[in-house]
Amino acid sequence: MIGALTSFCLMAIGARELNGEIGVFQILFFRSIVGLLVLLPILSLSSFASNASSKKGRFSFPKRIKLHVVRNLFHFAGQYGWFLGIGLLPLATVFAIEFTVPFWTIIISYLFLKESITVKKVIAVFLGILGVIVIVQPSLDVAHYASLIVLGAAICYAFSHVATKSLSNTESPITIIFMMCLIQAPLGLLLFIEGWTTPLGIQWLWLVIIGITALSAHYCMTKAMQHAEVTFVVTMDMFRLPLISIIGVLLYSESFSAALIIGMLLIVTGNSLNIYSRKKDKGSIAR
Prior knowledge:
By secondary structure, the protein is mostly helical. The protein is built from twelve helices and no strands. It has one domain. The longest helix has 29 residues, at about 260-285. It is globular and about 45 Å long.
């Protein structure tokens, strides 16, 4: 989890450092290209691996290409909103709004997958949305519109998560990640090709860091879930909020507001309620 937390924070710092210098679509293009460059050797080595017992974890030709495309359109839109928000809002605000993804996932899963929704889930969603309202503070200023962009990104991420859940029934994790990079690389290229900016010096380093940390964050989260309970992993993931808040203060002189702190507490409370209610439900079923 330390690796995941470090990766997420480094990716946010990289996005902030490149803000105004390299376009968001170009950053997303390089993110996918770096991902492919890292994944291709791994896939080549795995194809010669002698251990065939973990076939589910190995790369295989995608069986549901249309769903991969739909998933990555939403994921790409979510990334665009997240990276754009990093350049317009305090880091803590972006991460706090991003933490509403589980609430939108509950709603989308209920509407499209007909998953059950409990009273505790409804309360969790209510607390999360209330937290967003407190943070965003509806108004007509630029910060409000930037917050709405990040909120839209969170909703896109939720659609992506629901699609990922469906894909995981037939595709291995490495297949899903590889298809993500493969589909999103040309998307980024098409959208930035007329506005190419040649990276200079340390900008290349930040682009590589963003690409690598995007992969390492998901890898570390996956490995953590293999070795610890999901509730522990997700609870640890919530440390991203205070950690990125401290980074924002130290590196970019960002300040805390009462609204941000209250909103963060509401969102974290809603997430905690959702996590531990799921754990209790699973325990009841097991008994």
